[in-house]
Amino acid sequence: MRRHAVLWSVIVLAVVMLAPFVIVAMNALKSPTQYAAEGPLALPDGISLQGLADFWDRVDFGQKLLNSFVISGSVAVLAVVVSVLNAYALGIGRIRGRLWILIAFLVANTLPQEALVYPLYFLAKESGLYDTQLSVIIIFTIVQAAFGTYLLSSTFTGFPGELLEAARIDGANKWQALVRIVVPISRPTLGVLFVFFFIWTWNEFFLPLVLLISNDTQTVPVALGVLQGQRLMDATMTSASALLGVIPAIAFFLIFQHTLTRGITAGAVK
Fold first, then answer.
1. Which one is predicted more confidently, 73 or 56?
2. pTM confidence score
3. Within a domain: 199
């Protein structure tokens, strides 16, 4: 009886979570005429791709999609690398002032973006990186690496010292021990961080809105927000924009779902 109650609870929760996405997908496939006549909850009479095509052409969605993939992918890779290097020094190297450095990383990770926007805007202007993808990549690499460093440092603190000692006896230096022992063993955790960093960066809106002002550099969330703010879209095109904006992140999550599950399971087993 209890098992059936849990099953029904999961089904209800899944329906509640998927209902908005289904409604958006239905309206994205309707024609404006049908939407005006029957409303948002009616099933589409047929598949109309006009809203998707109009939105794609209006915002040059292919370019925005490429920009988001370049920025999110670069940040995810670089943030994982920086996190590993920092955490290796803090968690295994045990440098002096380790606790205070971790506190600094934790505090930096909790600062609101609103408090950082003007200093970052000023630095981007002064360095000539304003309205470039590189500025956003550098900023979010640092932001995400602050969290990754804090997380991995606690993980590396419990790393088996016997493995590192055996590697040292075999003649491996610190860099070789990191690359050949620490990274392979920590690969599931690093995979989880990579997925999270990619999705978090993909969904970022405020800082890219301030730092990326030209159409050639904007990301998908910025393009969606700017166009909707201009009130240039009807209901079907708005639904199409929401659908196209969320599908890449969902696809990325599904592709790397095994990596995410394996990482979480490995952490639980440890």
1. 73
2. 0.86
3. yes
